[in-house]
Amino acid sequence: MAIVLATSVLRAGSRTEFADTAFTVPNSSTQLCVIPCNYIQILACEIAVATQNITGFIIQGRMHSAGSYQTLYSTTSDFTNVQGILKGTSGDLTTITAGASGWFILDVAGMESITLYATCAASSGTVNVRAGGHVYG
């Protein structure tokens, strides 16, 4: 079961931050976390790779709590030719080297949550997820 990133208290017009959490990632696609999007308009997320290069990265979104996650972005061209609700990236998130970070900004208005998946080049990679957003209302 995925870890739901904890958030600070949500207040209209304020900024919220989700927990800075380290995840162990093997060399197969692994769900890192679920980020709840209730009351968040724009989400900014940093992916900090501590050990083992990332060789795959996926952003999925869910529009309703009873729905299933849909893949939104998952390929090199998705992250380098930014369009749709993806507002910006640091570049190709499917190839982040150990010791480096990547980031994305996503318009999550109307989404219930997003989930992130990563694959590392070898077993026991460590990836930190840091996210924040502006609370509307």
Give a description of the structure.
- It contains 1 helix and 10 strands.
- The strands form 2 sheets. A 5-stranded mixed β-sheet has the order 1-3-9-5-6, with no helix packed on it.
- With 137 residues, the protein is mainly beta.
- It has one helix at residues 76-80; strands spanning 3-4, 15-25, 30-36, 40-51, 54-62, 70-73, 86-89, 101-107, 113-120, 125-135.
- Helices cover 4% and strands 55% of the residues.
Task: List the main descriptive attributes of the protein structure presented here.
single chain, 137 residues, 5-stranded mixed β-sheet, 5-stranded antiparallel β-sheet, 1 helix, globular
Which whole number gives the mean pLDDT? 88
Number of helical elements: 1
| Arrangement of strands in the largest sheet | 1-3-9-5-6
Q: Which regions are unreliable across 5 or more consecutive residues at pLDDT < 50?
A: none
Note the overall shape: globular
Major sheet summary line: 5 strands, mixed
Tell me the span between the first and last alpha carbons: 31 Å
Strand composition percent: over 45%
Structural class: mainly beta
Helix content: under 10%
Radius of gyration: 14 Å
Short description:
The chain has 137 residues and is mostly beta strands. It has one helix at 76-80, and strands at 3-4, 15-25, 30-36, 40-51, 54-62, 70-73, 86-89, 101-107, 113-120, 125-135.
Task: Summarize the SSE layout with pairings.
Elements: E1 3-4, E2 15-25, E3 30-36, E4 40-51, E5 54-62, E6 70-73, H1 76-80, E7 86-89, E8 101-107, E9 113-120, E10 125-135
Parallel strand pairs: 1-3
Antiparallel strand pairs: 2-10, 3-9, 4-8, 4-10, 5-6, 5-9, 7-8
